[in-house]
């Protein structure tokens, strides 16, 4: 089967964004777009990533990117996060600190034939940012309904999410990752950092 025919098999976006927002009770997320916490386990454990502070065993959210706000900003959770795709596609950019930092790009999407992933594990200590793909945004802008373009995932954070274990990547911290000079392949990523 030709790649163009294969990719068209995966273009289905069955539940419109307006329905998702209403039925899943999604609200605005500080990282961009929409979310709803769906589970917070009551049992707590000492988190090895937060100096032994007690955290829920796990938390779960829905997270929705839409053409209205097609990208988030770089952020890091101290806990590991498993992302599970429900519908749509998004590109995740991961920056693992080091000398030099390692940049990876992964596409969450249903087209496993093209190397897209249905799940994505982001370990502790990794900066991440998600965005809708340019080709999907282009198609959405030409479409009669942008309501049927986006990406809905579930995120499972373990140990559970806590704002104390979360950080946004500022422009200065982004530049500090690279030391003397941000390499050309990373320069366009600075736009996805927090200004302050």
Largest sheet: 6 strands, antiparallel
The low-confidence runs, each spanning 5 or more residues with pLDDT under 50, are 1-6
Alpha-carbon distance between the termini? 49 Å
| Spatial strand arrangement across the major sheet | 1-2-5-12-7-10
As a percent range, the share of strand residues is 25-35%
Number of H/I helices: 5
Secondary-structure element order, as H and E?
HHEEEEEEEEEEEHEEHH
Fraction of residues in H or I helices = 10-25%
Shape: globular
Radius of gyration from the alpha-carbon trace, in angstroms: 17 Å
Mean pLDDT equals 90
Q: Class by helix and strand content?
A: alpha+beta
Q: Based on DSSP secondary structure assignment, what is the total number of beta strands? A: 13
Notes on the protein architecture:
By secondary structure, this protein is of the alpha+beta class. The chain has 5 helices and 13 strands. It has helices at 3-8, 17-23, 134-142, 171-177, 184-187, and strands at 27-28, 34-40, 44-46, 54-56, 59-65, 75-77, 80-88, 90-96, 102-108, 119-122, 127-131, 151-158, 166-168. The protein has a 6-stranded antiparallel β-sheet, with no helix packed on it. 27% of the residues are buried. The model is unreliable at 1-6 (pLDDT under 50).
């Amino acid at each position: 089967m030709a790649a163009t025919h294969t990719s068209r098999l995966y273009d289905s976006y069955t539940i419109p964004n307006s329905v998702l927002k209403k039925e899943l009770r999604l609200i605005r997320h500080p990282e961009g777009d929409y979310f709803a916490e769906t589970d917070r386990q009551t049992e707590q454990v000492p988190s090895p990533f937060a100096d032994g502070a007690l955290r829920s065993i796990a938390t779960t959210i829905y997270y929705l990117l839409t053409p209205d706000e097609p990208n988030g900003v770089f952020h890091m959770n101290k806990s590991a996060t498993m992302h599970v795709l429900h519908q749509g596609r998004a590109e995740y950019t991961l920056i693992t600190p080091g000398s030099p930092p390692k940049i990876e790009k992964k596409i969450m999407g249903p087209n496993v034939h093209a190397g897209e992933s249905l799940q994505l594990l982001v370990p502790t200590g990794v900066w991440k940012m998600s965005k809708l793909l340019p080709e999907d945004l282009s198609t959405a802008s030409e479409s009669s309904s942008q309501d049927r373009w986006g990406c809905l995932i579930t995120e499972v954070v373990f140990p559970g999410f806590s704002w104390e274990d979360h950080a946004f990547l500022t422009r200065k911290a982004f530049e500090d990752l690279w030391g003397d000079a941000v390499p050309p392949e990373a320069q366009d990523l600075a736009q996805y950092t927090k200004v302050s």
